[in-house]
Structure formats: C-alpha cells, structure tokens
Specification:
Blueprint (H helix, E strand, L loop, with lengths): L1 H40 L22 E4 L2 E5 L3 E9 L17 E10 L4 E7 L4 E7 L5 E8 L2 H4 L5 H14 L7 E6 L1 H9 L3 E4 L16 E4 L1 H9 L10 H24 L5 H10 L2 E3 L3 H11 L9 E3 L2 E5 L4 E5 L1 H12 E3 L5
Parallel strand pairs: 3-8, 5-12
Antiparallel strand pairs: 1-2, 2-15, 3-4, 4-5, 6-7, 8-11, 9-10, 13-14
Amino acid sequence: MRSRRKVFLLIFIPFFVFLAGVLAFGLYRMLGRSSLDSHAEALRVIRLEEGEEEDEEILPESGQILYNGNIYEYNDDLLTFLCLGVDSRQDIQLEKTPGKGGQADTIILAVMDTARKTLKLINVSRDTLAKIKVYDTNGIYLYEEEAQLALQYAYGDGGEGSCQLMEQAVSNLFYGIPIHGYGAIDVKAVADLNDAVGGVEVTVIEDLSRFTPDLALGNTLTLTGRQALHYVQERDVETEELGANNLRIERQKQYLQAFWKTVKAKTKQDLTLPLRLYNTAASHMVTSITADQVAYLSTIALDCTFSDEDMLTVQGTVRKEDVYEEFLVDEEALYDLIIQVFYREVERQG
C-alpha cells in the first residue's frame, strides 16, 4: 500500500502543481483584463459626436454615432496604452518641484484589438497644441491653458503623477477615448533595450551624421545602443524649416517597427526575452501595468499582426509664432482616425 501511495504521489503531485499553475495563470489573465478595464473606466467619457443632420432612415441607437452615412459603435475589444518617452537623462524618479521631471518627447498610443489580434501605433507630436493643467512649484493646481502637449508631463511629479496628467490630456485630445494603462521610459532605456535584442537594423532616412558619422542618409546598419539613442531622440532645433519634430517622428516610427520585428523573431528562439526586456527597462520606467496584466497581455501581443499600415500619425500643420513650434491638429482628420481605429461599423437591420 505504501508503495502504491508513493507511485500515486509521484505521478499526481506534479500534475496538481501544473494544474494549479495553469489555473493561477488563468486567474491572473482574467484579473489582468478586469483590472485593465477598471483603469480605463475612470477615463471613459467618450464625447465623439457627429454633426450630420439625422437621416430618418438611419437612426443610431444610444451609444452609437452616425458618420458619413454609416452607424458606428465603440469597439470594446480594444486595449489602449499610452507610451511616453521622457527627455530626462536620469532614471525616472519622483520630483517634488513641477518642471524638473522632464517633458514627454515621444507620445504614442498603442491600440491592441484582442479579438482580431492587431496592433496599431498612433504617434502624437510632442508639439501638439492641447489643453493642459498648470501647477505651481508647490504642486498646487492653478489653471488650464493651451500649450505644447509635452509640457503636461513636466507639471507632474516626474512619475505616476506626470503619467496620469498625460493620460488625461491625451484622452481629452482624442475625444475622451478610454486608456487602459500607461508606461513612460527615460531616453537612457533606448540604448539598453536596443542592445538587449542584439541591435536593430535600419536604413537611415534623415542625415544625422553630425551626431555620429555612421548615421549618414541612406546608410543601412545595425544600430548600437548609442546610435539608436541618437536616431530616435535627436532633432535639429536650430533649423529655420518648420516640422523638425515631424522628421523625428518618422524615424521613431521606423525604429519601433524594426524593433518589434526583431523582438518577435528572437522571442521565437528565446521565450525569456520579453521578461529580460522588462527587467532591462525597469529602472528606467514607470508604468501602471501590473503582473496580472502582463500575464494577460503576453498571451496576445506576440500573436498580433503589425505592418507599415499600422503606424499612424495624427495629422496637422506646424506654426512658429515665437521661439517654439506648435503643432495644430487637423480635427477633421483626427475625427476620421478615431472612427477608423476605435470604432466599428454596425450592420443595419433589414
């Protein structure tokens, strides 16, 4: 009898441990999605409305909108994350004095469709003229004004407070779309993450040889960490031509796509790579994404399709009245982008 019990234990204990692990992971995934939705619910004040005259034959129901003769509703299969690149060269840390936490030089909305397994990145210019909240040096709220969107990060604490301010400002810019989480990294993380995947290959689309000779226009190379940092961060602030930041956005889009392809390819060979990348970025990063959410997202992200067409940019025009450039959003184009990315068409009955 003892021998049989030992055999039973040897066979079934590992099975029960495995089963417990599967159930725990499944619970983590369930909690992950639930907590992501809870985070977004606080921001979910969708204000998208259509100004068309109503057609008696096309009447949208509550929660739906009429756009160009079609009826749309918000796509609840989406998870949207705010990704920020902060211009601080120190590891992200809390600042007691607003204005010392850096600015959000890179602003990207990552939109994942969990049903269709697609990923889209929407790049928003740091110079976008938007409503931001202004605080004094003691952190006391003063007023709201129109200014460069990147400045909203600086009025926070350089950590979660700054991210939450940016989250609200970007959501407002996008007519109140829900955002499920945020992540901000300082510029030093770019070099470390680049080297962690063995470098990223690009063909240089803007001459940056003044920063390093290898970044001459048209040169194809596998970027080292330092080169990658130059490639995604630098811009010509002294040029008299408008739109220097738009050129940088194009480089960032190119690099992100190449980085994503590199990560996907190498993860197939080494499943521990995503975790190592997370650990590499940890000291440079502040994020609302928790362990249960990572468990949920990790099962979806690597299956998502991602191509050139999924790299989107908010359209607009650039002006320079004083010292700094301002990006004026094309509201009609933005509205159309929101419809295409965040909404789905409702099939008409009959």
